[in-house]
Amino acid sequence: MYTFSQLLTRNFFLGLIFLAAMFVATFLLLSQYLIKQQHQHQQVITLLADNFSGNEFEAKKFAAELTKISPYLQLSITSKNDGLLFNYANNEPAAGLTLINPPAQQVSLKDNQLVISFQRDFSVAFNFLVQTLMILSLLTFVFILFAAVASDRKNKRLFNSFSQQIKNEMSAILKPNSKAGSEIDGDIFEIPALKSGLKDIHDLIELEKENASSLAKHAYIDPLTQLSNRNRFIQYFEDNISQNSNIKCGVLVMTRCSELQTINQIHGYHVGDKYISAVADLLKSAIALYSSAQLFRLNSSDFAAFIPNVRLKEAENYAKELTSMFNDYQQASDLDSVAYTGLVYFDKDKPLGELLALADTGISVAQTQQLNSWYSQKDNDLTSDASNSYGNQNWRQEIDNVIENERVTLLVQQIQPNSRNTRMYGEILARFLNADEEMLPTASFIAMAEKLDKIVAIDRLIIDTAITEISEKNIQDHSFGINISSRTIHDDQFLVWLERRLLRDSSIASRLIFEISEYGLQQNIRTSKRFIDMVHRVGARITVERFGVGLTSFKFFRELKPDFIKMDSTYTRDIDDDKNNQYFLRLMVDLAHRLSITVLAESVESQEEKHTLEKLFIDGCQGFYIGKPSKM
Fold this sequence. Notes:
ten-stranded mixed beta sheet; 54% helix
């Protein structure tokens, strides 16, 4: 039994450990907060300075925006041409420690002939930190004293109760006339106090088992599908296949959800989760026929299954069943495709990395065949390089077939204006067909076209098909957006072809808007500017999509002069609940409008998001809530 002084000492040390942890955590949080504030402060200075016109009124607005970010001890804005435009000094700084305030700083903006001098005031935040830690310290020491007193009383009660119980039990089982050395009748484990103690120990062990099981579930279970994740997949292979066990051979089956990226982009992430969950349920149903098989979710779009001690021929029956299920689900869900499957035979000598590469190649080959089909890698001796070449060759033939026979169909997803005075356009989405007029997986097709250096020809096919359909369907009174890859806009021969093609149909050219990612434009500023100048010269327009990922300076857009910017979905998703993104987006809209740039939002999935974006003066919205893609 612990004495009061021992309990007090033990609780004191525990309190010190807790207090030290709180000090460290609070210090780290404060450091991150100050670093974030400094970074955001520098961004706002750069962005606002790009649109500073150089007068006293603008200087006051400039200063007002800066004070929204942080309080200042001193702030002045000086023009090299007009002298001092704005000056502020706080003669009564916040009470308390002010030693943590940074020294005065000066930023010179050569393009605007401005000098901004400032000293930020962090004393309020620091004083709040000190007060918080003092309160935590006081509460900790009060808790230490209270816990020691409570523990001491509880220990005394338990000790007295246990001692009395032992006396009572011993009195009951020892006969009054028993002699010294006589044996105690009865079973020692029938003593109630001892039984109660053993039960408490058993309950504690069971609780620890439950806690361990819960931790394992978080570490090894995918929360969406409740399947084992990639960590468990690797562990299963190492423990049950590569080591000595009853599994001598088998088949690895990998299934890829080909439409996830497209669904997330067009319909939203909530619909994408439902799609993944539905595919997981189909996989669980099919794999249930194999009692010893194990199913895993490897990443966002890939599933894998080990079917032990079977040959490829038997596992192909599983793949055929999957294809049948996927076809039924596709018809019910109105999807272009559902998933493709690759199979590879394994034994104990095959490394896991090579098995995954072979199965991935099987998926690549399957994607060039029928919808939702499968392909089994029968030559188990193929090296990874040879296998990849085989998959690449299939894709090369399929892409060449699409280009040669113009097997492309176009859909349109409209962008809804938030004002009657704003005219918007519909974004063209291309879908590609194989020789059987079945849809190829779009994301895989584009990725392989990039990899095999066929993307320029694909972009030409899409543009040519779009112009032809606009002309034949007599819809020149509508505007259409066409995506172009970054590789294509930097191709000299493509630029010559595009200019001639647009000049040939000048009335349609004025209705086209070419969408290029911000990252693609940044890869080569000189050729990007040449492309945009050519597009404007023939009457077409430019949208910079996925804007905000790199936080490009607006000076960059003054040089390139795009007509639209489309904010990246990371800024618009759940915008109704994100105050930081709301402030940032409002600032972007204000600066873009000063440059006569129209601001669009993509991936709008709910009414709340749309209403919030309208309040932020976004010019147009696109997404599943606004409208689904339809035929052109």
